[in-house]
Write a structure and sequence with these properties.
This protein is 22% helix and 24% strand. β8 and β9 form a beta hairpin.
Length: 185
């Protein structure tokens, strides 16, 4: 009987930055980038797919959060947008959480029961949209899997016009509505 021992290959020192056939560091979504053309976002139920690259014509604001019902997002981050006087000037507004559509619907119902703000709450249950923007991070220790960085994207005609991305994945510094909506003109 022969014993087969697999040969382990040593990975390069920068293995954590290797992506596909490229060895460059990841690049977060930038101004000028087109939105990903994906049918992975869901609204209110799994069968209601939303493709933002097809839906957004004109101005829009996309707000990304790690999770619905998280304390920072529920107590200050998203309510700051809901109650902001310049929100209507942003065009179509979407809040995207790495959650299923039932959770994001319940969260939207709690934060904006009358839906007077016009904000649409979307789920990204597989984090595919978030990953396509290069805005995912490993949140296994807290949330059990990949989650989204907090971010806001000002979008015009399917192209990102301006980005606001929380640098440390945990805080909300620079993510408040006053900072993001001040750029709307």
């Amino acid at each position: 009987m022969r014993l087969i021992i697999p040969v382990l290959r040593r990975l390069p020192a920068n293995a954590s930055r290797v992506r596909g056939f490229h060895s460059t560091a990841t690049a977060l979504v930038n101004a000028g980038d087109r939105l990903p053309n994906l049918d992975v976002l869901v609204e209110n139920s799994p069968g209601n797919k939303v493709n933002l690259s097809e839906q957004i014509t004109g101005k829009a604001l996309i707000i990304g959060v790690p999770a619905a019902f998280s304390p920072s997002c529920s107590n200050s981050h998203v309510p700051g947008y809901i109650n902001h006087p310049k929100l209507k000037e942003a065009g179509d507004v979407f809040v995207i959480a790495v959650n299923d559509p039932f959770v994001t619907k319940a969260w939207g119902d709690q934060l904006d029961p009358s839906r007077a703000s016009g904000i649409r709450f979307l789920g990204d249950p597989t984090a595919k949209f978030t990953e396509a923007l290069d805005l995912a991070f490993d949140a296994s220790a807290i949330f059990g899997g990949p989650r989204s960085k907090r971010y806001a994207l000002l979008v015009e005609d399917g192209k990102v016009k301006e980005t606001f991305v929380e640098p440390d994945n945990t805080g909300v510094d620079g993510m408040y509505s006053d900072v993001c909506l001040a750029s709307i003109g």
